[in-house]
Fold this protein.
Amino acid sequence: MSLLKTIESGPTDSIKRILVLSYSQSGQLAELTKSILEPLEKSAQCAIHIETLRPVHPYPFPWGFFPFLDAFPESAHMVPPPLQPLTLSGEEDFDLVILPYQVWFLAPSPPVTAFLKHPLAKKLLSGKPVVTVIACRNMWMLAHKKMKNLLAACGARMLDNVVLVDPGPTFTTFFTTPAWLLTGRRDFLPGFPPAGLDAASIQAASRFGYALRDALHSDQERGTAPLLIGLRAVESNPHLLVSEKAGTKSFYIWGKLLRAVGEPGQLRRRPFLILYVLFLIALIVSVVPLSLLVQALLRPFLRRRLAAVKQEYDAPSGSGTERMSVYEQ
Ligand SMILES: Cc1cc2nc3c(=O)[nH]c(=O)nc-3n(C[C@H](O)[C@H](O)[C@H](O)COP(=O)(O)O)c2cc1C
C-alpha cells in the first residue's frame, strides 16, 4: 500500500508507515533494500514511502580515477553535498525509518550524510525508531559510529543495524572493489572472485523484512529493544579497527589540506591527490597487513580486548543466529 493512499484514506492505527531512504550507484544497495522490503510490501498493514536521494551534482559511476580520489576530503569531513528537493514536507509521521547506506572513505556516503544534515531530517526523524542497513566492502565500523552521532543529532532512536560485506578476503577485495568502482564491472579482474555482495546473501536478507513485519504487527518498534536479534544481522571484524582508525586519521588530515587547496573538482587539488594516493598505498600495504600480523602474534593477549570491540560493534542487533530458522525462507 502506498503512503499517499494511506494519507488520502486517513490515518489508520493498524497501518504502519515506513520511510525508506534510497541511494545506490551500482544498484547493489538498492537490491539489498528491495530484498528487505519485499515482505513489508506484501503486508497490507504497511505503507512504504521510498525517498530517493538525488545529489544536485550526481557522482559518476563508474568513477574516473581523479573524481574518485577527489571525493575523499568531503566524504571524510562529512561535508554535505546539495541534494535536489525532497518529496517530503517534514510534516509526515512515520512509525519506522529504514536507512540503508554505503560507506565512502570510512564515513557514511555523502548523499546520506546530506539527508541527515538536511533541515527536514530532524523533523522527520526526531523520536523515531531507525534501522540502519550497511552494504560495503568490509570497513564500516567507524562509519557506523559516525552514523550513530548523526542520528543522535536528529533525535532519532537507532534500534537495529544490519551489515552485509563483500564475501571475498580483504586481500582480494582490496583489488576487486576499486576495479569495480572504476570500470563498473564486478568481474574485471580475471582469476579473482567477483566484487560486491553475493546474490544469495542479498536474497537471504528478506529475513530482516519478515522479522520487521512481525515486530511492527505487535508494536515492538515503540520500545527500545532491537527488532532483529538472532538473525545474524552483523558480524563485525575487530581486527580491522586499527586499520580503520589509521585510515580515518589520514583521511581527516589530508582532507583538511586538500580542502584548503581548492574546491571539489578543481585542478589544483590534483598534485596533492597524487601525493596522497602514494601515501595511501604505502599505508595500506604496510599498516593493514602489519596490524593484522601483530594482532595474530598477540592474539592470546588481545583476546579480551578484541572480544569487547566485537561486542561493541555487533551491537545493537548482534551476530546471534537463534531466530534464523523462523525467518529464513
Ligand atoms: C568513493 C567510494 C569510497 C568507498 N569507501 C569504502 C570504504 O571506506 N569502506 C568500504 O567498506 N567500502 C567502501 N566503498 C564501497 C561502497 O561502500 C559500496 O559497497 C559500493 O560503492 C557499492 O555501493 P552502491 O550500492 O552505491 O553501488 C567505497 C565506494 C566508493 C564509491
Remarks:
- The chain is about 50% helix and 10% strand.
- Residues 1-11 have pLDDT under 50 and may be disordered.
- The pocket of flavin mononucleotide is lined by residues 24-26, 28-29, 68, 71, 102-106, 135-140, 177, 181 (CB under 6 Å).
